[in-house]
Structures are given as structure tokens and as C-alpha cells.
Amino acid sequence: MLIFDIKRYAINDGPGIRITIFMKGCPLSCVWCHNPEGVSSRKQKLYTKKKCIGCQTCVKVCPQQALTLTTEGIVTDSSKCNLCGTCAAECPALAMEISGTEYSTEALMKEIEKETLFMDRSEGGVTFCGGEPLLHPEPLLELLRKCGELRIHRAVDTTLFAKPEIVREVMENCELFLVDLKQMDSAKHKQYCGVPNELILSNLRMIAEQGQDFYLRIPLIEGVNADEENIRQSAEFLASLPWKHRTVNLLPYHDIGKGKHEKLGTIYNPKQYPFSAPSEENLQHCREIFAQYGIVTTVGG
Amino acid sequence: MNTCTAQRAPHSASNFAPSVEANAFGMNDRIKRLRKETFDAEPSLSIERALIETRFYKENYGKYPIPILRAKNFYEICRQKTIYIGKDELIVGERGPKPKCVPTFPELTCHSVEDLHVLNTRELQRYTISQEDIDTYEREVIPYWKGRTQRERIFGHVPQEWKEAYEVGMFTEFMEQRAPGHTALDGKVYRFGLLDLKERIQKELDDLDFMNDPEATDKQEELTAMAISCDAAILFAERHADLADEMALTEKDPKRVEELRKIAEVCRWVPAHAPRDYWEAIQMYWFVHLGTITELNGWDAMNPGHFDQHLAPFYEKGIAEGTLTRDQAKELMSCFFIKVNNHTAPPKVGITAKESGTYNDFTNLNIGGVKADGSDGVSEVSYIMLETIEELHILQPGSAIHISARTPERFLRAGCKVIRQGHGYPSVFNPDVYIQELMRQGKSLHDAREGGCSGCIEVGAFGKEAYVLTGYLNVPKILEVTLNNGWDPVSGRKVGLETGDPRGFATYEELYAAFLKQVQYFVDMKVRVSNYIDRMFAKYAPATFLSLFIDDCIAKGRDYYNCGPRYNTTYIQCTGLGTITDSLATLKKHVFEEKRWSMDELLQAMANNFEGAEAMRQMILNRTPFFGNDDEYADNIAVKVFNDLYDAIEGKPNTKGECFHLNMLSTTCHVYFGKVMGATPNGRLAGRAISDGTSPSHGADTHGPSAVIKSLGKLDQVKSGGTLLNQRFLPSLLKREEDISKLASLIRSYFALGGHHIQFNIVDTETLYAAQKCPEDYRDLLVRVAGYSDYFNDMNADLQADVIMRTEQESF
Question: Active-site residue among B76, B458, B480, B658?
Fold first, then answer.
């Protein structure tokens, strides 16, 4: 399976000190996505112009002769490039990178086990994240089972956009889900995230009813979901779940993902939807709405 | 025109959270005034001590045996020096005539007229002195000491090859300008008054056996000198009592009159007698501290050791009897902190010396830890000290929390919360490991537990040991010389052995063997001279007052510098573990294994400071396993270097029947050492700082703090006398309550792996850049550099750049 990042001392992806494994590929395509390199299931080339020293090593080594140096830096002819990765392997400055490294479950377990000391001390563990890890049920379940055998706490950060039987099987093999609730209106969900939300909501209800522990987060975006109506509907829905935490983590939008689009050579928010970070005032207002439904909110994380 | 705005960079708001205001026990008005005073006081030079001493020496040199001469000299200083009692002070006594006014020590090294002018006018670390004083110094002091200082004695002796190596920056020598010091005291300061010690001295004198003991005469001289030193300190305290009484006569504020009377009462009791309460205990220590830094200029100041443990019984007694409140205890603690902060380090001579770039001396309080019986050392006084650190937010004293496996989690968390404030304090030590270090060196379990870390990170048996730091060894420079067959490419001088042209080495092992040969050569060179210097101090500059407080100087009748202490350790501090590891990894991987470049190509590129070879440099920086990433390839090299340095140093005999040990710290010396070096194989450019302590090279650790800790954990740190790990955290990593717990877990994890020390810089680059642009708005910005904290504005541009360069722990 393709992994696009491994973060150690991850302190925002569940309880304690964790290691977070980022799996490539996602069925959603949220316009604000912070990890756009996680969307595609295939390897992708990243180019960081700022790091490029113009040495043309990549131009020389490319077997397809797909690269040229221009005033805009290195340009890749995508009709010739077959993502073989030679350029990235030889680029001295790491300006050219391939996002997506093939890992066996054994190799990943070796990485995970490097962090057990810190997990044990802090009641942390491993978090599988994406992309969408449930897009790769077989290797994911194998990893979850192996971690389970080592008594490592397992969290899965998921969109819940997956077949219910897969969700159920993953649920039986992890301690915690990290789930996002993005938009209650299915048409808008499709507009901003590329897929409707019925499956997500029914899976969320299902895991709640099964007594699965989960953290719920809402990326709060003015223009997408920070309006009174959506927040009320979200609160109402969440209040109706049999759910012990009753806590929502609000994540005010920021545009850190922009830079990654530049590297990928893709365009951020191509349809130019008008959205922005919520004002402090609206953030407080959203918190009040949740409070009316008996739901605690935390901000940031 | 001043274009600075009075605003902080955005992140500094979280950097200096409003916890000070939120604290229920905030500073009272007295402490606010005293804090402002110590903050605003400009460091200045006082020639008073030099004048008293020079007059005394002129009249008396040759009349007395050296120990007695030194003790009488100390007595004269105590008898004549200006006594200072500040307006709001409760704890009294200054080394100079006023706060931050520093005496000179011409018997060790004598400032020239030019030195004094430069000190008075240089932009950073300025020490003011009047023209009149400079003229007096030129007339009264300088002529007498010409040819008589310790420094001249030392440099008159050392062999040419040592001088060459010293001049090119292969190592430094601590004792060329200051006396061996760097020690900390134990609990006996609070159990015996100086009159009690005089009785013990008399008993030893009475028991001297001139019939059978060939050393009886030497002992008699030393013991007599110790007794004189007791009288000197008692007189010094009485003069404070007299002044306080005198001030009370003219003081109008009845509350202050009462305080002055109390100060007088305290000073008439201590240090002559053992302290009876908390106030007297602090004043007792302070007089002892002042005495030791007045008789000589020891590296680096003095240290009360486990101050919270020493004060706890007095605190508890006062609270139980109702004679002391918690607020009073904290006020007195604050007064003590301010006293320490008033004592700026004496400046060096030869201003061009680039080794030091701060006003800092090192009084590093040990908070928490374990008691001598192995039980938890945390008390309410420990928490009072943490609050004091947080509220006062001043440069000195340095502080460290000591976290043993049995230290309560809530104390660690309280410490982490102070760390989060970004003051640079406290650092964190691991008693479970340093007790093993001390026992490995031969200390008893009891003495090891009473020990700790003073100064930067080095361990010692408090109150029982002379542990002398002799200077830093520039390990990466040894590789530089190896790669140039014994020549220093920067100065063009031959300083090392001819171990062969590296272009001819067929294997990495051959190169490494040559490097080790050079290591041994320079270590041996340094040891020989250090041993000579040791004897110079034993002969010409005995510390007869300090000797009173170090077991078993009185019982042996021997001085602190002359085997008097129960333990006598000598350290060589090795610097640049990250730089040397990464350089060796580069050579091993790219030159010998993958043959990406020939040795010649790499050496050429280094000689040209990688100009025109940026692709090579980037390749090295990005495609070499570097130390600090939990990567076996690099970490195995680090472990091997560490063990080989240990083998090269450990067991070399010192002059006291004991031996040299390995220490791994750099303080700020990694900046100086970097300056005297060309480009290194790891892609570091010429002149840039080498790595500090045992931290990874700047920017080399790209896998976060847990990976750094795993790498450091592979060193068997018990073999050292201390290691040093700097980690910089952005404030955003410590925002939430749970982040504090995670930081605590990180620390516990490192200590479980056998880590000796870790410290955190909680700052962001934006704040630092803003501070460079607009220094006056950031006067209180404390930054942790290597072994201590300093005001960012007081640091030179190199050190500032160094702090900014350190790896940022990106928002994980």
C-alpha cells in the first residue's frame, strides 16, 4: 500500500503520544483539503520550486526525457512522465519528490514499534489516517490485527465513506475512530466533497449504536458549513446519537493546504468557492448552538 | 527615527501566557522594585578588590606561607570592602560595592588598560568603568602583577605544540583566566556555623603529629588559613549588621526600621552560628556563596545544590510554629534569586577571545530529585521555587527540575508548565542516571544521592568533591586535522600527527583509526597541561574559604585544590557529537561505500566551502543518515565515537590520585569552535557553529523529538559525567493541558532510556526575528542556549543566528 507520510510524536491525532500513518487515496475530494497529495491512490510527483537549486540533475537522469528547466523551475511533461521516481531519487535538494512510498505491513510495523516507548508512557498508540484508510481494508485490517496482538492502542481517522461491513470489521479491530462531520445537506456535501453524505451519516449512527468510541471533529468553514442552519442540524443529529463523549472538536479553517497544491501542480479550490476562516464571533455562536443541544465543544487541535 | 512598534510578534502572546498575573502568589511591591533594580542595573567594574589585594600583596608577599597569605588577603577584602544594603533588601551582601558591579582578580589574570577601555565601550556585554578608575588601575594594580599572575605562570610553562593547538581552537582551557570552581554545596552549611568549624579546625591543629607526619607543617598552614577565613566571613557579616543598625537610626519608615534591625540580628548570628530559621538559612548560604566568589574567581560561580531540600526543614518548622508564612517564604526566596542575578560574571582579559558571549555565570539550582536516603526530595519549597522562577523571569539563578522515577507526576507537570512559559527554565535532569554516573566514578551511594548537577550539566558529589572542568575539546576539528594529514587548513599550521593523506585510505576503518590516533594525541596533550595547571592552583591560589565547606578538607588538613576533597575529578568536555557523527556518516556512505564522490572531490569541495558544489552539499544534507533520527546507521557511528572518546579520556591520571572522565557539553563553545573551522563533510559551511552538547546538528533531526530521544538513548550515558540535549518547541506544541502531560511523558521516556538531561526552548522564529529587529521591545526574552539561559538581546549575532537555526519542531 502507498504511504505518503509517517509522523512521530503526533499529539493531535488521538490520546497520548502517537505515530500517525498516512495512507494514500480518498473517495472524497473536499475543496479545502489540507492533504491533497492524499486524495489520489496513485504515486504523484511533488516539485518544490523554493528548494530547487537548478542543478538539472533530474533533467539528466530522467529516462523518459520528460523534464526541462524553465524560468519557472523544472517543468514535467506529464505525457512522457511515467512516475518512475528516478528524478526524485537523484534530486540533491529534495525539490523533486514522489508522494507515495510502497510499504509492506512488516515495514510499517517496524516503524510503529519504534514509538512504543512513548505510547506506553503516555497512553498513546497508532493512528491510521489518510487519505481514507478504509479504502485499503485488507492491509489496514492486517495492520490493526498486528497492532492488537502487540496491545498497541489503535485509532482510525476516517471519512466513514465506506461499505458498512468494512466499517464494522475495522470497528471490531480498533479502539477509536476519529470522524469528521462536514456538511449535513447531502447536495452541498456532494458539491464540496465530491460525494453525498447519506452513507457517512448512517455509518456514524451505526458505530454510535454499536457503542464504538469515537472523536468527532467539524472543520468549520465560513461559506461551506459554518452557517446557523447547518450547525443546528449537525448539533441535532449528534444529539440524537447514543454517544458518551458528546464532545465536538471544532477546527477553524486555515489555508495551509494551498502550498501543497503548488507542489502537486494542481489548483487549490479550482471552482473558486468563496470560503474563509470563521470569525471569532461566529465561532462563539456555533459553540453556543452546540451547547443548547448539550454538546461540549473544543476548538483547535 | 525609531521605527519599531511596541507590539510583540503574534506568537509571543502564547509564549508569555498570563500565568504570572493569574498566580495567587504574585510578586509583592518589594520584589517588583528589587526585580526592576536588578533588571536595570548596568554591569560595571569595581577596582576595589584589586586595590586592596595589590596593597596587601605588596606589603606581605613572602612574609607568610601561601595559604595564610591567601586567607589574610581574603580577610583584608572582607574588612575593607564597601558594604551595600539596598533599599528594599531582606537578604544582604554583594561581591562588589553595588549590584552587578564586578571586582577583578589580578592574581589570576590582570586586565590591561586596553582591556578596560574595550570593556567600557564595546556594544555587547559592556562593563562600565570610569577613566579615573582606569588610571588608578594602570598606576596601582597593573605594574605589580606583571609576571606574577597565574595566567602568566601557566603560559610560561606550556609546550609550543599545546599553544599551537590552543590557538587554532582545538580545545579551550578553563583555568587560564579563572580558578577551578564549578562546585555545589551540601546540607552541612545549615548544620554548622563558622565558629563550629573553627573548633573542628582547632582540634585538627591540636592533633597534628609533627613527629610522624611529614605533612604536618603543610597541614598546620592550611588549617590556620582556614580558621582565618572563618574570621573573615564572620567579620564581613558583622559589618553588614553594623550598617543595618546604622541605617535603622536614620530610617523614617518604622516598618523598614524593623526590617533593618532584623537584618542586623540575622547577620550577627550567621554565618558565625548555624541558622535557626528559614531567613537565617538563606542568609547563611548567601554569605558562604559570597565568600567563595570573593576569595577567588572560580568557574562558574557557586551553587547551593539541593536548595529546596536544605530549606524544607526550616520552612516546615516555621510554618508549624507560626513564625513564617508561605508568602514570606516566597518573598525571601525571591530576594535570594535577585541576589544571585545581581552577580554578573567577571569579564575575561584579551577581549578578542571569542569563546564567551554572555554575562552569565552558572548558579544552577537543583529542584526536586531524591534525598540522600533515596526518598523523594520534593517539598513545598520546591513548588515555591517554581513559582519564583515563573514570576521573576530573570537570568540567574539557573534552575533545573530533577525527575527521578519516584518524583511525583504533579511536580513534573508543574515544572513543564513553567517550561511552557518560554523563559528557558527549568531544564530537566535525571537523578536515576546521574547517581549511577557518580557511583561508577567511585562515590558512595549516600554521597552520590547528595550530589547532582551544577553549572551546566556536569555531575558532582555536592559538598564533597572538586570536579574540575578543564575545557572543551573540538572533536569535529580533530577530524578536520585528520583529513589534512595533521595540518589545520584554516590557519595553515601543523598541529596534529601525520596520520597519512586520506586520499590513500582504502577503507572507512583506516580513516577512523587515523582519527582516533589524533584524538588520543590531543587528549594526552591537554591532560599534561591540565595537570600542570592543577598544581599551580594548589601551590599559589589555595581556596581556604571554599575548603571549609568541602568534606574532607578540614579532616585532611588539605586545600580544595590539593586533594582535600573526598573526591577529586577532572573532566574534559567533548563537543560536537552531532557534527562529527554526521561528517563520518557522510564519508562512510558516500565516499567509501557508494563511491559517489572520491575523497579528493569531497575534500576539494570542502576546501572551497562547497562553492560551486551546492548539488553535492544538498545531496549530503538530504541523503545522508544523520544523528538524531533514530537511524541505526548514524546512531551506531555516534555510539562508537562516544565510546572511543570515553576510552581516550577515562582513567588518565590527574595530580590528585584520581583520574579524568568524559563529559559531553559545549555551553556556548560550539559557536566559537565552529568559527575556527572550515567546511565539514556533513555539509556544514565554514565558520558556522558545530552541534551543541550531544544534540543533533542544527536541522539534522527531521523526525521529531521522539526520534531524537531514541537516538540519544543509544548512548550509554552512565559512562559520562553528563550529556546535554537541547530541544526547541514551538509554543503551539504546548498549548493544551494534555500537551503538558505529553511533554511529561516525553521526558519520562527519555529518562527511561537512560537520558541525563533535556531542556526545551519554547520560542518561535518569528518572535526571534522580531526581537532582532526591535531589541528594546524584547528585553525580557530569555533564550536557552546550550547549558544555560541568556537574554536574547545580550547574545551576539552568531549566537542569535544559532538559536534561530535550531531545528523547529514543526506543528505535528
Answer: B458
